[in-house]
Structures are given as C-alpha cells and as structure tokens.
Amino acid sequence: MAVEEVVEDAAGLLETVAWMAGAAVAAYLLTGVVAWLVRRAGRRSEIAREIAQRLRNPVRATLLVVAAWIALNMSGYAGEEWFPVVQHLVLPAVIVTGAWLVGNCAFVLEERAYARIRKGVHDWREVRKLRTQVMMLRRVTVGVISVLAVAGILMTFDGARTVGASLLASAGLVSIVAALAAQSALGNVFAGIQVAFTNRIHVGDVVVVEGEWGRIEDITLAYVVVHVWDDRRLILPCTYFTEQPYENWTRESAELLGTVEIDLDFRTPVESLRAELGRIVSGTTLWDGRVQSLQVTDATGGTIRVRACVSARDGDDLWNLRCHVREQIIVWVQSEAGAALPRTRIEADADGAKSARMAGLPSGVSQPSMVD
C-alpha cells in the first residue's frame, strides 16, 4: 500500500511538472508573438520600440513563471505533501520576476517623461538638472522595489513572519540600535537625495573639491563621482556636499572669467600690449566676446605686473584661452617689444663700485649698463 502511495504521489508530481512545463512553453510562444507585434509597431513608434527593448526579457520571464504558477495551482494536487514545497519554490520566482518587470516599467516611464520634458527645455542647466533628478529617482525606485521584493520573499517563510511580528512587537531597543549602526549609511542616502533635488550640483557641473578641478560624473545614493581633469576619479560621500565648502563653476552659468599675469619691464608699451591682447582674443573661437581687458596691477621690485582678463563659455575653453593668451603675449614680447623683457639694472658710483638695484634708474645716472 505504501508503494502504491509513493507511485501515485510521484505520478502526480510528474503530471504537475508536465503541466507547468507546458504552460511555460505556451507562455514563451505567446511572448514571442507579442514581441513580434511590438517590433512591428516599433518601426513607426519610438515608444513601442523602447518598450520592446526594455520589457522583452522581464515580460517573458514573468509570463513563464506566472504560467507555471497557475498550472501548479490548477493541477488538482493541492492536498499532496509535496505541493507546498513546489509552491514555495515557484512563488519567490513570481515575486522576483514581477519586481523586475515593475522596475523596468518604471524606467520606461521615467525615460519617456524625461525625453518629453527635455524637448521643451533649451536651457542646458535645466537639462542637467532633469538628468540628475531622473537618475536619482531611478535609483530610489530600484531601492524601493528591491526592498519590497526581498520583504515579499521573506514573508513566504512562516518563520520569517513570526520573527517579523516579534520584532515589530519589541522594536524599541532594536530600532535604536539599528539607527545608530546605520546612521552613516542613512545619512549618505538622505544627503544624496538632498543634493540631487536641491540644485546644489548636477551631473556635468564643473566643480573644485579638495583642490581638484573636475566634472560631476555620477551621483548615487551613497557617493558622488568627480571626473578630475587628468582622468582620475574622485569618490566623495554625499554628505561631503552638504557639510563641506566647494566650488561649483556652473551652478547658474558656465561662463567664466580668467586672468593671465606676466611680469615685464618698466619700458613695456602698455597701450600696444593692450591692442595686441584685443587682436589675440579676436582671432580665436575660445573667447566668447564678453570681456577682455589689460591692466597694470603692480609696479614694484624693478618690474611691472600686467594682468590680462578674458572670458570664455566654460571652464575648458577658459583654460585653453588663458594658455593661448599667455603664449601669444610671450611671442609678441620676443618679436615686437624686446625692451619689455624684465632686466636687472646695475649702477656704477663715483668710486667704480657697482650696486645692483631692482628698481628704476636714479635721475643722477645718465648711461647705465644693462645686463639681461
């Protein structure tokens, strides 16, 4: 009698598995037909094409698992000893694939909303702001769906439900300990959300942090990645941007001013150099046409300090423009104004002794010797 029961149970299990496999095959064929129809529609619709790309695998996996789960529950063997075990194996798979599908649906909706809003926005600052917020919203969505999926899987275990109820009943001390232990991690999470939605920094902003110049490459719930100018990556916790001072060169506008300082001789033709600066910046596309000026900011120690102020569209152009102006002024001094090169003047007194002076010539000396 026991042998017959074992054989009957095995036959019922095999029959159930066969029904589940058949349902999975039918679901697979159905998803193939749906995918073909969506691809056909995607030729004329961008939304359909994006849905086909994003949701093909999640929909297929979800339908396969759901079909197997439905076949299992309709098999008529719910009273068998093996049924709860098989059901418990299938149910977590339904939760995981469902979470995968819901997450990808959320991604499609976020991307479509971002694309629609971006079409009507011509300000690059607003575009970067939207991009940053969409990225952060996506990460929050993934986090919430993942937590709910894990909680759903755990709740399928009777022991987990019992433990969860007991923890909720005595959550006072446990919650305090957990909060203290996770204070740093939770602080970073909330700081990341705050940074993304309060317009402090956006992806693509030019910043100076820890003495390093770079661009914001990524903002996560835990850290911010800064792409430094020499291709290094500076990883900083999100709390850094809520607690420490830093420079954001592009928060309101990317346009910047920069200076070039050169020490020259007192005999420098300043007006000619000022005109040369205008010619230099007018001949390059790096200059945005806003500001160009030249002033003498200091005159001590035997030289004058000339400062050229120029403007550019962004930090990259400003750096290259400053280097270009510096190089061209040096070339002009070498070829057109040799007298502007800094010199050390030596004065010979009546006794034939020499003394070096780092200032201009005194009025009593008519023909001093010059040493470059």
Summarize this, please?
Keywords: Membrane, Transmembrane, Transmembrane helix. With 372 residues, the chain is of the alpha+beta class. It is 58% helix and 19% strand.
Tag the structure with descriptive keywords.
single chain; alpha+beta; Alpha-Beta Plaits; 3 domains; 5-stranded antiparallel beta sheet; 3-stranded antiparallel beta sheet; 58% helix
Major sheet summary line: 5 strands, antiparallel
Unreliable runs:
356-372
**Straight-line N-to-C gap:** 116 Å
Shape: elongated
Radius of gyration, CA atoms, in whole angstroms: 36 Å
Q: Which structural class best describes the helix and strand composition?
A: alpha+beta
Amount of helix? 55-70%
Strand order of the largest sheet: 4-3-2-1-5
Order of helices and strands: HHHHHHHEEEEHEEHEEHEEE
Number of strands: 11
Provide the β-strand percentage band: 15-25%
Main location: membrane
Keywords: Membrane, Transmembrane, Transmembrane helix
Protein name: Mechanosensitive ion channel-like protein
Subcellular location: Membrane
Folded structure, characterized:
By secondary structure, the chain is α+β, with helices and mostly antiparallel strands. It folds into 3 domains: 174 residues; 52 residues, Roll (SH3 type barrels), CATH 2.30.30.60; 85 residues, Alpha-Beta Plaits (2-Layer Sandwich). Helix content is 58%, strand content 19%. It contains 10 helices and 11 strands. The strands form 3 sheets. The protein has a 5-stranded antiparallel sheet. The protein has a 3-stranded antiparallel sheet with strand order 6-8-7, with helices on one face. A 3-stranded antiparallel sheet has the order 10-9-11, with no helix packed on it. Helix 4 runs antiparallel to helix 7. Pfam families: MS_channel_2nd.
